[in-house]
C-alpha cells in the first residue's frame, strides 16, 4: 500500500471534515471523467521522467489548470475521482486560488469516497498554507536551500494537528519527519539505484543502513517502499518486487510492507502470492480497508 493509504482512525480534526465519514452515492452508470483522468495521469508521469525540463512542465501544468477551471465552471466534475484528479492538477499551481481549489477538490473527493488517498488532502492543506506564507500543520512540505542544497521541513505549527491525526492522513509523525529530513540530505535510495543501476547493490546498501540503525523503522521502510513504487511505474515489476519483499523481511510486523508487496505481486500477475500477502497485511492490521477491498474483489 502506498504511504497515502495508511491507518484508519475515527477522528475529525475540523467540523467541516467530519462529513468525510459519509459517502455520496451516485446513480449507477456515472463514470469518471476520462479526460480529467488522463490529465492527472500525465501530471504524475511527467514528474517521473528525469531530467525534468521545468519550463516545459510548468507550461503544461498551466494548460491543465485552465482546463480544470473550465470543467469546474461547466459542472463536469461528477464523481469522487473527478474531484480527486482535479486536486492533483490544481495542487501544482503557484497562487492561492489554485492551492485553495486543490484543497476543496480533495475535501470533496474524500467526502464522497473515504477510501481515496487521504495524504493528498493533507499535502494540499500544507501547500495552501505555505502559499499564504503561514506555517504548515501536517508537515508534508520540505524546502531546499538554493545555496547549501540542504533540505529542511517548512515551518510548522505542530500544535494544530496531533500525530494520531497525521497517521489518519498517512503523514509521518513529527519524529518520523526528522528522519525524513535526514534521509533527504543523504544520497537517496533512488539516486543510489540510478548510480549503480543495480537493484541488488541497492538492496545491499539498504541492509547496511538498516544494520546501522541510524533511522527509525518508518523512515527507511517508507523510502524503500517509495523506490519500489517508482520502479513499478517504470515498468520494472521484478526489481520492484525485490524491494517490496525486502521490506517485509526487514519489517515483518508492518502491514503496509505486506500490502505493498501484495500490490506488486498483483501487478506482476502473481495473484495467488498477492492474495497471501494481502491476507498477512490484513492480519497485522484488521482495519486495512485497502487489503479488504482487494481480497473481496479477487474472491
Describe the fold and architecture:
With 299 residues, the chain is mainly α. The protein has two domains: 3-178, no CATH class; 186-297, Serine Threonine Protein Phosphatase 5, Tetratricopeptide repeat (Alpha Horseshoe). It has helices spanning 34-45, 54-73, 80-90, 96-112, 119-131, 163-168, 174-184, 189-196, 199-212, 217-233, 237-250, 255-267, 271-284, 289-297, and strands spanning 142-144, 151-153. It has a two-stranded antiparallel sheet. Helix 3 (80-90) runs antiparallel to helix 4, helix 10 (217-233) runs parallel beside helix 12 (255-267) and helix 13 (271-284) packs antiparallel against helix 14. It is globular and about 50 Å long. Mean pLDDT is 87; it is low at 3-28.
Give the proportion of residues in helices. Answer: 55-70%
Separation of the first and last Cα atoms? 19 Å
The number of helices is 14
The class by helix and strand makeup works out as mainly alpha
List strands and helices in order, with pairings:
Elements: H1 34-45, H2 54-73, H3 80-90, H4 96-112, H5 119-131, E1 142-144, E2 151-153, H6 163-168, H7 174-184, H8 189-196, H9 199-212, H10 217-233, H11 237-250, H12 255-267, H13 271-284, H14 289-297
Antiparallel strand pairs: 1-2
